[in-house]
Amino acid sequence: MAVQPNLLIRTSCSSARIHDPKHCSRPRTSISNGSLRNTFLYLGLVVVLSSILVIFIVFCMASSPCNPSFSVAIACFNFSGSRPSARWDLNIVAGNPNRYNGIDYRQVGVYMVYHGEVQAKTNLLPFYHQKLNTTTISTHLAMEPGYATEPVAGLVVADQSAGEVEFDVWISAVVQFKTFRDVQRRRFLWFQCNSIRVYWQEGAGKRSSSRPIKCDNEPL
Predict the structure, then answer these.
(1) Parallel, antiparallel, or unpaired: how do β-strands 117-124 and 102-114 relate?
(2) What number is the average pLDDT over the span 29-51?
(3) Higher pLDDT, residue 130 or 86
(4) Are 88 and 82 a contacting pair, CB within 8 Å?
(5) What is the per-residue pLDDT for 107?
(6) Within the chain, what is the greatest distance between any pair of CA atoms?
(7) pLDDT band at 155, cuts 50/70/90?
(8) What's the per-residue H, E or C state across the chain?
(9) How far is it, in rounded angstroms, from Cα 129 to Cα 115?
(10) Regarding predicted confidence, which is higher, 33 or 72?
(11) Mean of all residue pLDDT scores within the chain
């Protein structure tokens, strides 16, 4: 019986004297150290640039804080026409929309206005407003007996007879914004809350406003 001679077969994987083509192993794949190094450098650069972009956006937002918001409701209103005098109980809702800035209220003045004339004024105590927070402040204003002029008293009586009395509330505030670096920016703000209606019924001594009125931040 004839013996088959060994064959020398050259393949892409090896050059070996074999009896069976199945003996050839699969081609090997390899990644050079240079390719790995370039991949890690690219990923590191992406992470660094992304971090710088996030820090820049946060810094810009913290350096340009938004003004607070206010809304006002008259919880109670008393008026005496014999010797004109009035009392108001207000609920002031203050909102801080800033994610990175607290607000330090240094001076806050509240003015009760009727037909364009200031009838009473009060000052709120200084307070600090946390980030992304809403707080309600209750305060009281009183018009001293005899302070209102006769035309103003006559207008209030006429509005009572019509079923509602309309007031405006003005708010002045000196605020400082605190950032993560504790750098403070001071602003003087002016808000007007117009057309706060107090509904009146015959024989009732106290009435409240129908709903809170959002205040407009007026430019100075």
Answers:
(1) antiparallel
(2) 74
(3) 130
(4) no
(5) 93
(6) 140
(7) confident
(8) CCCCCCEEEECCCCEEEECCHHHCCCCCCCCCHHHHHHHHHHHHHHHHHHHHHHHHHHHHHHHCCCCCEEEEEEEEEEEECCCCEEEEEEEEEEEECCCCCEEEEEEEEEEEEECCEEEEEEEECCEEECCCEEEEEEEEEEECCCCCCHHHHHHHHHHHHHCEEEEEEEEEEEEEEECCCCCEEEEEEEEEEEEEEEECCCCCCCECECCCEECEEECC
(9) 32
(10) 72
(11) 78
Residues 130, 169, 165, CA angle at the centre, nearest 5°?
A: 135
User: What global pTM score does this model have?
Assistant: 0.70
Q: Which two tokens stand for residue 26?
A: 């699969």
- Please check the confidence at residue 22 and state whether its pLDDT lies above 60: no
The CATH code of domain 69-218 reads: 2.60.40
Q: Phi then psi for 180, rounded to 5 degrees?
A: -65, -20
* Residue carrying structure tokens 């006769």: 150
Q: Provide the pLDDT for residue 58.
A: 58
In sequence order, which residues have a C-beta less than 8 Å from that of residue 31 and are 6 or more positions away? none
CA distance 55 to 80: 59
Tokens read off for 82: 């014999």
